[in-house]
Amino acid sequence: MRMTVIGTGYLGATHAACMAELGHDVLGVDVDTAKIESLKAGTVPFYEPGLPEVLTRNLEAGRLDFTTDYAEAARFANVHFLGVGTPQKRGSYAADMTYVRAVVQDLVPLLEGDHIILGKSTVPVGTAAELQELADELARPGTTVEIAWNPEFLREGYAVKDTITPDRIVLGVRKEESRAEEVAREVYATPISQGTPFLVMDLPTAELVKVSANAFLATKISFINAVSEVCESSGGDITALADAIGFDERIGRKFLGAGLGFGGGCLPKDIRAFMARAGELGADDALTFLREVDAVNMRRRDRVVHLTRKLSGGNLLGKRVTVLGAAFKPNSDDVRDSPALSVAGSLSLAGAAVSVYDPEAMDNARKVFPTLDYAETVEEALDEADIVVLATEWQQFRDLDPVATGELVNNKVIIDGRNVLPVQAWQDAGWNIQALGRNL
Ligand SMILES: NC(=O)c1ccc[n+]([C@@H]2O[C@H](COP(=O)([O-])OP(=O)(O)OC[C@H]3O[C@@H](n4cnc5c(N)ncnc54)[C@H](O)[C@@H]3O)[C@@H](O)[C@H]2O)c1
Fold this sequence. Notes:
The chain is an alpha/beta fold. Helix content is about 45%, strand content about 15%. The chain contains 19 helices and 14 strands. The protein has helices at about 10-20, 35-40, 50-60, 70-75, 100-105, 125-140, 160-165, 180-185, 190-195, 205-235, 240-245, 265-280, 290-310, 340-350, 360-370, 380, 395-400, 400-410, 425-430; strands at about 1-5, 25-30, 65, 80, 115-120, 145-150, 170-175, 200, 320-325, 355, 375, 385-390, 415, 430-435. It has a 6-stranded parallel beta sheet, with helices on both faces. The longest helix is centred in the middle third of the chain and has 32 residues, at about 205-235. The radius of gyration is 23 Å and the shape is globular. The protein starts with a strand and ends in a 5-residue tail after the last strand. Nicotinamide-adenine-dinucleotide binds near residues 11, 83, 85, 152 and 266.
């Protein structure tokens, strides 16, 4: 099948390359010339394990190309995936829909014949219906454009696997006559033939599935972090507690890792946009609990800053603090709303001399927080540290040898912000190790 993928960021570049990997002819489209040049040259402009290989293999096979030209996209195919960003709007909780609308405004007047736009971006409920109206207004006489929604569930760090073998495919279709299911079945013929559940539903439900999934995951993380606060006050241990409740199949251990909480380009803005949309629909009471989910999450960052100050004798001025991690999670270079960078920034603003190291996210971190000190290696970051904060649970940090690390620092004091270090080994090496939700 021939298809375009409009918006080639984390989602779109992955989707374009993986659709080509499934055997389709794909044209990726973006307004960012540098990104398109990079992708055309076979370089993924962000860190995603396995994606560079898929990209180059399919460029070489001639199944994949990239452009900034919407006219070329309009001629190339009759199926278009829409994967542009929907960030939080400035000064509001709502999603900024400018980019999504711009795609329809720029693409639809150029189309001829019968086209389908499959939305993949995470959007407020009601968006697809609105875009359908816009597309109907803009379409040339004799041209038809159907809008359907096919939300994306990929996880950064596992994006290739999640796109080629997703755990489910969700498709929202309009009530009127629709070709979307037939088209989507052909696009996803391979995963469907391998048994991936393919769920067809109405448009609002499909839009809500995505934000509900993210709201649930955020709630699960904040739940354990809220209990973690009680553990801190009562002498309990959050990791033992999470293990114990996690054995209950109805609860499950996944997403019960207490620590610095969630961040990134999705969960925080998605729960806020969900609340904002519910408010517009007069259903704001339904989601007020998400405000608390957000607040619990943000308090964990404050807690780490507070603990660092306490362990520094009450004053951060001039203290050398090493922050291990800048990405919002391991196996990604994404620093959007990163808890690690938030903590590093707060410590720096409180007067600490902060040295940051991340295996992949240094360039992105420098752009967001140019005033922090970025070390070339983990050893350089740890050199003469008064206190170390593990903020992103990269394997490299989990594997640190407490004895060798102890020889680099001034004071053997570490805060495990992700509850991933073997406490006994660090204590045996003479470290004062502190962790969120535990009394060590
Ligand atoms: N990143 C993820 O893990 C993930 C997972 C599931 C869903 N999503 C959703 O997917 C969407 C995209 O997220 P992302 O992380 O890829 O964002 P991103 O910022 O990495 O990418 C967005 C891309 O869209 C491009 N763009 C903006 N306006 C455009 C236009 N008019 N025409 C063509 N391209 C345009 C930008 O240049 C950018 O390359 C969001 O709605 C997000 O919530 C993301």
